[in-house]
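Workshop exercise sheet. Pairs work together: one partner reads the sequence aloud, the other fills in the structure field after running the prediction. Swap roles for the next sheet.
Pair: D.N. / O.F.
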Amino acid sequence: MAQLIDGKLLSAQIRSEVKADVEKRVQLGKRAPFLTVVLIGEDPASASYVKAKAAASAEVGIGSDTLRFESSISESEVLALLARLNEDPNVDGILVQLPLPSHIDEQKVINAIAPTKDVDCFHPESVGNLVIGMDGFQPATPAGIVEMLRRSNIPTAGKHCVIIGRSNIVGKPLANLMLKKGIDSTVTVCHSRTPNLPEIARQADILVAAIGRAHFVTADMVKEGAVVIDVGINRIDDPTKERGYRLVGDVDFEAVSKKASFITPVPGGVGPMTIAVLLQNTLKASR
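Structure field:
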């Protein structure tokens, strides 16, 4: 039976470290780091996530505010807002919660955030720094995964890491992080067009599922003793629950946990680590 990688516990360690650093900064007479979150529209998942970010910021002493706008706001108004935030010396980090309404070009918005305040690590300059190994912000979810492995004393050097999913948010940046010197994994990225995907998945020492399909990774896709990281968050109907659904990952947890050596749960796995890294990035931006 696999050992559980507790994202709540590990993220609490990171938050404690950030809080201590923030307190030292304030004791030296500097202001606390400040994060501004822009939330457009009424998407419940986005609102919930933003609320969690605000609570986590407050917990570690990072100031934050959430600027909320109706989905009817124009693209030009959003870009003008970001220009003002870029120039505001009291704002260290800027985060625009995605997805955005269809009439707003997400890439234009991402490009409009100053790279020095891009705590989500989505700006092309931030991504470029990541690819060539320059110091900079860490992409929150991928860096959270690397922290999980490191803090769980799971070796990565020379290990075959198979990532299922090629998104700009998880798959691509995680591949670059796992290739970095000091992590030193051999990386394969699979996606919906990959032939013989189960066969490749079975070669993984570290298998990361980030494809957005409930229970996509089954036990027959996992080799005995593999480390399995589940990034997926999917709703499935469950009439036994008060809200009528429950959250599951991209991995068939019950079956795969019997073969894996380590596994992350959903919820309570990668999710809390994403917010913890965001706090680290905000602290870094303030420096």
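Discussion prompt: The radius of gyration is 19 Å. What would you look at next?
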